[in-house]
Amino acid sequence: MALDGWKEKLYQRYLVWICRPARIAGHLQTSLPEPGQPAPVNRRRIRVAALQVELRLFKDPLDYADDMHRRTREAAEEGARLVVFPEYNNLPLLGLLPGIEKMEEAYRKKEAGNAGGDKEEDISLTEVFRYMSPAVQTLVHTIFSKLSAAYSLHIMAGSYTLADNGDVVNRSFLYGPSGELIGSQDKVHLLPLEAEWNLKRGSLFPVFDTALGKLALPVCMDATYFETFRILEQKGADIALLPIADMQEYNYWLALRGIWPRLQESPIYGIKSALVGSIAGLTFTGRAGIFAPIEITPERNGVLAEVEPYDREAIALADLNLEALDDLRRNHPWRDSNPALYRRYFPGIYK
Amino acid sequence: MQVAAISMAGLRMNSIEKYRSDLSVLIKKSGAQLAVLPAYSSIVLGLSAGALQPAGDYNILFRQLTGSCGDWNRQFLDLHSSLARELGLYLAAGTLIETDFGHHFHTAYCFNPGGDICCRQRQTHLSGYEREIGLSRGEELRLFSINGLQAGMVIGNDARHPEVGRIFALLGADLLLHSGALEAGFNCWPQVAGMWSQVQQNQVWAVEAQLKGFIANRTFAASPAIIGPCEITPGQSGYLARGYPETPVITAELSNKARLEISQKYPLLKLLNPKAYSALLQD
C-alpha cells in the first residue's frame, strides 16, 4: 500500500511542521551551553565516546532532541571530543507515527507466523522510511548541528534510512564543532534484509580531513568486508566511526566479526556505536566500544574500551593516540603488500 | 571428512626414523583423511636430526639456510611423500625454504594419498624480518582438490593478509590449510586476527597447524585450531576444535553441507560490492 492518500500527505506535512528547524532549535536553545572555542587538539590524547543507545519510541521530536542532547552532554562532560551515535538512529522516530504500536504488534504476529489480515494492508518499512524522510532529515540536521556547535564537538550522528531521489539509502552524517555538516556516507554493503527492502547501496568511501585526524564513516555491515578498511587505510583514514544495529541475539564471537578484525588487518582506530532493543519483531544487540590494532592497545587485545551490557544504554570512552598509530604504520612488523598478486587476481575475482 | 592439525609437540626429532614413527602413530590415531603440519617443519626437523647446520641466531640461521638446504629439502619431501602413501591420506607437510632461479621462497607442500605432490604453494606476504633475510614473495594462489573439496594453502604471515583468503574464496575454495608459526609470549589475539578472521569473512573451513618448537634463539608456540563459520560451530565460537600450544594434534569432522547451507542463508560473498573497490585495483 502506497502512502500517498490525502490523509497521508496531510500527516506528512504535519510531521515536517513539528520537526521544523525553528521549533527544534528554539527548544534546544533553552538548555544548551553557549558555544565556546574548541580546545586545541593533542594528537597523542583525543578522547572519544561510543554510545550505546537503547531503542525506544518518541512521540514528540522534542523528546528525541532532548535524548540526543542528554547523550551528547554525558559524553562532553567526560571530555570527549568526538561522539558517535548508532546505526538506524531514526528508528526511535517511528514513534511519531500514530498507531505505530499496533503496527509493531502486527509485525510481531507476522514474524511469529500468525499474520492474518489483508496482504494489501502491508506497508513496507522502506515506504515508511521514505514517507518520514523529509521530516527526519531536517530534524537530524537541526539537532546535531546545534549540539556539535554548542559543545564544540565532532559528532557522528549515526545513520538514517532516508529518501534519495527515488531510492532509500542508509546514510551516516558527520558534524563539525562549528555545527557544520562535514560529510556523509551511504552504506556500501547491505544486510540480506536491507537488500530485500531494496535499499540502494553506496559505492564510495569518503575520508574527511578534520582537526581530529582523517575520519571515515563506514556503516555496520561495511565492516564485514576487509575491502572497506583497506580502501580507508589507502586513503589515509585514522579513525573509522562505525554505527551498528546488529539484528541478532548477542554472542561474543558473532559480535567480534565486524570492526575488530578489520582494524587488525588495516591499522586504523575504530569507534563502534550500537543500537540495542526491539521493535517490529527485530531485536538489536551489541556492545559499543573503541578498538585499535593489537600492537597499540595496553592489553594487546585490540580493545581500548567496551561497554559491558549488550542490551542497555551505556557509553564507552577512550583516548586515541594518533602519533602511536602513525608510528605503527611506519614501522609495521608484519604488514606487506603484493601488487603483482592483486593485479593477477582482483580484476577477475571481483567481476 | 576427518581433518587433523599437528603442532609437532612431543614428536621425537633427534632422528628421522623416530620422527617418522611418531608422526605415523599420531596420524593413524587421529583417523584423519587430511593432516596439516605447521610452518618451518623442515627446519625444526632438519636441525633436530642434525641434517642442517645450527646457528645461535635466527636471522643468521635463515641466511645460512637460503640456498644451502636443497639436499635436505629433497629428503624431507621424500619422507612425507612416503608417509602420505603409507597412511593413505592427504598430508600437508608444513614448509621449507627453497631457492628457484636465485630467489628464495617460503613454500608449503601437500601430498595426496598416492604420495604425489598435489600442491606447492609459496608464501605471498612477507613480514619485515622475512624481507630482511632475503625471501621473495610468491605471486600465485593455487586451488587443488581434496576428496571433492577445493583447498588452498595459507602460509605463515599470509594468514594476516585478508587478500589471500578472499582470492581463494572467490576462486571457489571450501577449505584453507594453514601452516603457521607464531612466536611464544603473545596472547591469543594475533591468532584470532589471522585465520579465524579470514574464515568468518569468507565462510570457508580452515585447518590451522601452529608450530610448537624452537629454531635458534626463538621459541614458537600457538594453538592449533580447526575453524568454521561461527553459525555452524559449538557456541558459535568459530572453533570446531582448538588445542593448547603443547597439544600434539587436534581433529574434527568437516561437514561441507552445513557450510554450504550457511553461505546460502547468509550469502556474504554475493553481497560484495565490487563497484566500490576500484581503489584496490590500482597500484
Radius of gyration of chain A, Cα only, in angstroms? 20 Å
Q: Tell me what portion of residues of chain A adopts beta-strand conformation.
A: 15-25%
Written as H for each helix and E for each strand, in order along the chain, the element string of chain B is EHEHHHEEEHEEHEHEEEEEEH
CATH architecture of chain A: 4-Layer Sandwich
What is the structural class of chain A?
Answer: alpha/beta
Count of β-strands of chain A = 13
* CATH class division of chain B: Alpha Beta
Spell out the key features of this protein.
heterodimer, A: 351 residues, alpha/beta, Nitrilase/N-carbamoyl-D-aminoacid amidohydrolase, 13-stranded mixed beta sheet, 13 strands, globular, B: 283 residues, 6-stranded mixed beta sheet, 14 strands
Structure in a nutshell:
Chain A is α/β, with parallel strands linked by helices. Chain A is built from eleven helices and 13 strands. The longest helix of chain A is centred in the middle third of the chain and has 27 residues.
